[in-house]
Design brief:
The complex is a heterodimer of chains A (about 375) and B (about 180). In chain A, the strands form three sheets. Chain A has a seven-stranded mixed beta sheet, with helices on both faces. Chain A starts with a strand and ends in a 10-residue tail after the last strand. Chain A has two domains: about 5-220, Rossmann fold (3-Layer(aba) Sandwich), CATH 3.40.50.300; about 250-365, no CATH class. Chain A has helices at about 45-55, 80-85, 100, 110-120, 125-135, 145, 155-170, 185-205, 215-220, 240-245, 250-255, 295-300, and strands at about 5-15, 20-30, 35-40, 60-70, 75, 90-95, 175-180, 205-210, 225-230, 230-235, 320, 335-340, 345-350, 365. Chain A is globular. With about 375 residues, chain A is α/β, with parallel strands linked by helices. Residues about 355-374 of chain A have low confidence and may be disordered. Helices cover about 30% and strands about 20% of the residues of chain A. With about 180 residues, chain B is mainly beta. Chain B has a single domain (about 35-175), classed as Sandwich (Immunoglobulin-like), CATH 2.60.40.10. Chain B is built from two helices and twelve strands, in the order H-H-E-E-E-E-E-E-E-E-E-E-E-E. In chain B, strands 2-12-11-5-6 form a five-stranded mixed beta sheet, with no helix packed on it. The relative contact order of chain B is 0.21. Classes of the chains: A alpha/beta (about 375), B mainly beta (about 180). At the A-B interface, strand 4 of A face strand 8 and strand 10 of B. Chain B: It comes from Natronolimnohabitans innermongolicus JCM 12255. Chain B: InterPro entries: DUF7974 (IPR058280). Chain B: Pfam families: DUF7974.
């Protein structure tokens, strides 16, 4: 049994503009100790998915259907008291903006020890000791004296570490990291990601890492789900996603990763923007931006299928993608090709778009999965 | 150094009887010390509220080529100098139609929670929503069909019973050319 199983989750926001289809029929599962990445542009529904798992969706948002099974129990059917005992304890979340997540009028130490006192029943002295120990673990220097500092006395990186300490304080089974390094510079980003990874290995915690940075996913995750306009468009083990992407959106994302030594003047980007989630285009939501779109893409919405067989995806399929190409409905096919080149110290994936795309693209994959070098 | 927290000068928000839920029913008011939205909801008869609000739908052209997106603008206006609240049947406050088909879909698009909604207009407020119809009808959960050339009626209406009779709907006609 998976640690977390999300089945057919649909979340909508009822606004004056219309109904926002934030998450549409989304299913995924995360095993114990697994590192699962969720990638996509802003507005793809990544954060709403995470907040739905924590049952933190507020009005005008509504979880319209689906189930979120955690250790076999449906979180959406639990009482408020039951969900509060799980939130922060068995499922913890690292929010993307640490400065907003921390309460400015309480000391950082107090905010960490409050969680420990509430969930683990420690007394004040024990909770303080554990908080100091956690601050030390996440790399806050002189943790004992920093315990009684206020959030504004911490730098951005330290605030993020404090949030991670708070999230790890009750040894959660699942840690949801919602763009934990977006607000940080790259050196701190690397340190924070290493810390999350090390700590997760140490505590055998499963991680759901939400990001729009495919490089971060390659470094950290075992499996990845790519989301577009509230729907999953591709799910695969991280190596397969990088070496053999099946969805044109994934290819577009990979092409837009900058690479050292790249001689192109401009990066290849995906033309256009994410559609308005109130007015989704008919057919495949990605078709207005897809260089390989055909008439059939405007009439049919592709389901997630096994790209090899074209059969509807099942839980056992490792690599699935939602594109009409794999059900034989595209006449010209997908015109990109991916070649993996050896270089002195890293593997490179070259994604060459076909005749219909505006230009060829060249993509570097930062250490996908860690050990495979073709 | 003595910290503010240690001085007990601050009230914790987890004391018993402290409200722990955000009250989303309150809106920021034009005159902050008078909750005129609530007052008008209580004092203004619904019939007058219906008469105070108008809706209009318009398109930039009357004719469109096949396959061309049809953009349209829905404008709603409260003509009263007080806030007005229109109670709606569900959380879907208004909808647009093509030949009477809601959002050009022959299949239900959503299953809203069993709750009534409220469409709130500030005093004299004008709301404008920009939408487009891509000349397709949704005919199955994942299937669409292109609309044939001909004349189509685009409409917009509040989600209230008999919106037509209450003057809370508007229509316009567009033609899809056959070229």
């Amino acid at each position: 049994m998976s640690l977390l199983e999300v089945n057919d989750l649909t979340v909508k926001f009822y606004t004056e503009e219309g109904v926002v289809n934030a998450v549409d029929n989304l299913s995924f599962s995360i095993d114990r100790g697994e590192k699962f990445g969720v990638v996509g542009e802003s507005g793809a529904g990544k954060s709403v998915t995470a907040l739905s798992v924590m049952r933190l969706i507020e009005s005008p948002g509504h979880i319209e259907s689906g189930e979120v099974l955690f250790n076999g129990e449906n979180l959406l059917e639990m009482s408020d008291e039951e969900i509060r005992s799980i939130r922060g304890n068995e499922i913890a979340m690292v929010f993307q903006d640490a400065q907003t997540a921390l309460n400015p009028v309480y000391t950082v130490g107090e905010q960490i020890s409050e969680t420990i006192r509430h969930h683990l029943g420690y007394d004040e002295t024990e909770a303080k000791e554990r908080s100091i120990q956690l601050l030390d673990t996440v790399g806050i220097p002189d943790a004992e004296s920093r315990f009684s500092d206020y959030p504004h006395e911490f730098s951005g990186g330290m605030q993020q570490r404090a949030i991670i300490a708070m999230a790890l304080s009750c040894d959660p089974d699942l840690l949801i990291c919602d763009e934990p390094t977006t607000a940080l510079d790259v050196t701190i980003e690397t340190k924070i990601l290493q810390e999350i990874e090390t700590l997760a290995d140490e505590f055998d915690t499963a991680i759901q890492l939400i990001t729009h940075d495919l490089g971060v996913v390659a470094d950290v995750c075992d499996r990845v789900m790519v989301m577009y306009a509230g729907k999953p468009v591709e799910k695969a083990p991280v190596e397969e996603l990088y070496y053999d992407p099946k969805h044109p959106y994934t290819v577009g994302l990979m092409s837009s990763i900058p690479r050292i030594g790249d001689e192109r003047e401009r990066l290849q980007t995906i033309p256009g923007t994410m559609p308005d989630l109130v007015d989704l285009p008919s057919g495949c939501s990605f078709h207005p931006r897809c260089p390989y779109a055909e008439e059939s893409c405007t009439r049919s919405e592709p389901a997630l299928v096994d790209p090899e067989t074209g059969a509807v995806a099942t839980d056992d399929d490792e690599h699935v993608a939602a594109c009409l190409e794999y059900t034989g409905e595209l006449t010209d096919g997908l015109g990109y090709e991916v070649t993996v080149r050896d270089s002195s110290d890293d593997a490179e994936v070259e994604t060459v778009a076909g005749a219909k795309a505006s230009s060829a693209v060249d993509t570097d994959v930062p250490d996908a999965g860690g050990d495979r070098r073709d | 150094m003595r910290r503010i927290y240690e001085s007990d000068a601050l009230h914790r928000d987890d004391d018993p009887h402290t409200p722990n839920e955000k009250d989303t029913s309150r809106r920021v008011q034009a005159v902050r010390w008078v909750n005129s939205t609530l007052l008008s909801r209580l004092l203004l008869p619904t019939g007058i509220a219906y008469r105070a609000v108008s809706v209009d739908i318009s398109t930039p052209n009357d004719e469109f080529a096949p396959g061309e997106s049809v953009p349209f603008v829905v404008t709603m206006k409260n003509s009263l100098p007080t806030p007005v609240t229109i109670p709606t049947e569900s959380l879907v406050l208004w909808t647009w139609t093509v030949d009477g088909v809601p959002e050009a879909s022959h299949v239900p698009l959503r299953d809203p929670p069993d709750e009534r909604g409220a469409f709130v207009f500030d005093r004299g407020e004008r709301k404008q929503f920009h939408k487009r119809w891509d000349q397709r009808f949704k005919v199955g959960n994942d299937e669409w069909e292109a609309a044939d050339p001909g004349t189509y009626t685009l409409g917009a209406e509040f989600n209230v019973p008999a919106a037509d009779e209450k003057g809370l709907s508007s229509e316009t006609i567009v033609e899809i050319r056959s070229d």
